[in-house]
Amino acid sequence: MSELIEGFLGKSVEGKKSRLPAKLDYLQSATGLFLGLFMWCHMIFVSTILVSDKFFNQVVDFLEGSMFFEPKPIVTSVIVTLVFAIFFIHALLGMRKLPINFRQWQAYKTHMGLIKHGDTTMWYIQATTGFIMFFFGSAHLIMMIFKADEISALHVAYRVVSQNMWIFYIILLLAVELHGGIGLYRLCVKWGWFEGENAKESRKKLAKVKWALTAFWLALGLITLLAYAKLGLANDGKPVPPKTHASLIIKSDKVGM
Ligand code: HEM
């Protein structure tokens, strides 16, 4: 905790200038990069329902170790716990930068209104979506840790339709894609990645790529949600029987059940 305070103040307890803020910034960038790239893989994984529900179940099985043993949901629980730890560290580090009282918040908003600079407005969006994700992202990850045996196309479809989780996922999707897109853009600007001869020009190009990517992931996410909704509605939103783990569903398909 004292390290976080030192990172926030930029001074050690003895009043010496600290290197900690720079180190924490580095850790925030690294965890952000990991989560950004992870989300790209995650969106592709979830969207495999667009191929077929059987394919989605096979992917779940594969990620749960079907190459080596009988697929085990505990594998998912362990992976999600690791991702959650990184997510939590990233969020804690991000909190250092949020305005800590109403006065600071007002000063920031006035400043943003006065200078009307794109990157300053982006920071506002990033802080707000980060706040939303702290709650929605944590809830999603905790659910995945404890309900890892309920990841199959039918279970997802049931959650989306019958438990009205589509509302939850639309909010989370918007927050994640805006936050992740801006985050990756800011990483490029901060560390000078893809910076050509003319920094101003490359920043403009980066911003365009960023919006294109955000639009792409948002569209894919919404189409994916629609596919789960269609499957859930076709199933009349009926509860799926307990213990229908993806691997069992695939097996029961084979024996024509
Ligand atoms: C290893 C960790 C994770 C696993 C196994 C996982 C799994 C899943 C699954 C199975 C779904 C389908 C919906 C459902 O089952 O209820 C889903 C959807 C979603 N997840 Fe995750 N998730 C993980 C991490 C994350 C993280 C870190 C975030 C961002 C904070 C996130 C954001 C989302 C969003 C936005 C959707 C909706 C996608 C769409 O609309 O197409 N997930 N996730």
TrEMBL record:
Pfam families: Sdh_cyt. InterPro entries: Fum_red_B_TM, SQR/QFR_C/D, SuccDH_FuR_B_TM-su. Keywords: Cell membrane, Electron transport, Heme, Iron, Membrane, Metal-binding, Transmembrane, Transmembrane helix, Transport, Tricarboxylic acid cycle. The chain crosses the membrane at residues 26-51, 74-93, 122-146, 166-188, 209-229. It is found in: Cell inner membrane; Membrane. Its main location: membrane. It comes from the Bacteria. NCBIfam families: PRK13553.1. The fumarate reductase enzyme complex is required for fumarate respiration. This subunit anchors the complex in the membrane and binds a diheme cytochrome b. This is Fumarate reductase cytochrome b subunit. It comes from Campylobacter gastrosuis. The lineage of its organism: Bacteria, Pseudomonadati, Campylobacterota, Epsilonproteobacteria, Campylobacterales.
